[in-house]
Amino acid sequence: MKNEFKRSKIQFCPVCSSKKIENSFINFDDRYGQPDLFTLAKCKKCSAYYLLDPVSSTDIGKLYKKYYPSLNIPPGQGSKIQKILSVAKPLLHLVKKIDATETLISRVKNDSSVLDVGCGYYPRLKNEIDDKNLDWEGLEIDEKLVKTINSAGLVCHQGSLASFRSSKKYDYILMSQVIEHQLQLKEAMEKVAKLLKKGGKCLILTPNTDNLSIINDVKSWIHWHTPYHTVLFNLKSMSVLAGINKFKINTYKTYTPTNWELLTRNFRSPIRGQKNKSFHYKFSPLEYFLVSLSLRIRDLQKPSCNPCMFCELEKR
Ligand SMILES: [Zn+2]
Known about the structure:
Layout: E1 21-28, E2 37-43, E3 49-51, H1 60-67, H2 80-85, H3 89-98, E4 113-117, H4 125-131, E5 135-140, H5 143-151, E6 156-158, E7 170-176, H6 185-195, E8 196-207, E9 231-232, H7 235-244, E10 247-255, H8 258-266, H9 285-301, E11 308-315
Parallel strand pairs: 4-5, 4-7, 5-6, 7-8
Antiparallel strand pairs: 1-2, 2-3, 3-9, 8-11, 10-11
The protein binds zinc ion.
Zinc ion (ZN) is lined by residues 13, 15-16, 18, 43, 45-46, 48.
């Protein structure tokens, strides 16, 4: 059967450029119903996983437009809980600590300049920026999303990291669940290095494949997220990426956001080409709270094997 979108052929690891593959397997979109098959390979040298046949840069916009729901969120939508708690900031901070959903902005020092790559939009974004008096700029691919962010009174550029041009140097570059979507990782990281001041920080949140060591069914790991995730890291491959681009790793830790755990527990692989109904899971506040507490304990017990990694890279 013909593929729906044009595909690229990746000949070497996007992290370390090695051609040696430890193993590979076939996967498909198990969330949004894109029907094509893709091949995931594990690099023998740095242990990064990457797609050998991702959707090409000419068609990637069409893939996201047709299948990826976050690009179709109307402005001003947010959870009721978030809206209610936004009037009680200390309580909101506490909840975010308990369920491990703190944003990267919360890790930035006050009065800093920030480029937030793939910033997305949520109702509290402007408040978070104003509270820290940040000189903040967003960068988003999707034109509609850029307009939404601009209409909230924020500066947001349209484009990818690889295509972004600026003579400004930033204190921070934020990449929250973004680096694993890159089609041009090398160009993107070169751009990050160029845009940061000396001593500037790149803060990254991304899935951690060391988590595979503690789960039973590797293929049903929800963070393969094929074909949207093109490269997946663990501590080893992140260290290689940092070294190649002359960054040092200041902080590395892993944890489990509560919503990730609940989605994982409920996840059932769908028939290929069908939307996954198990991926939208409703839970009671009590269940959410109890699961959150048990996860914060697990984070401490298994500090390197949780599914989400936080990494602070410093430009040397
Ligand atoms: Zn590699």
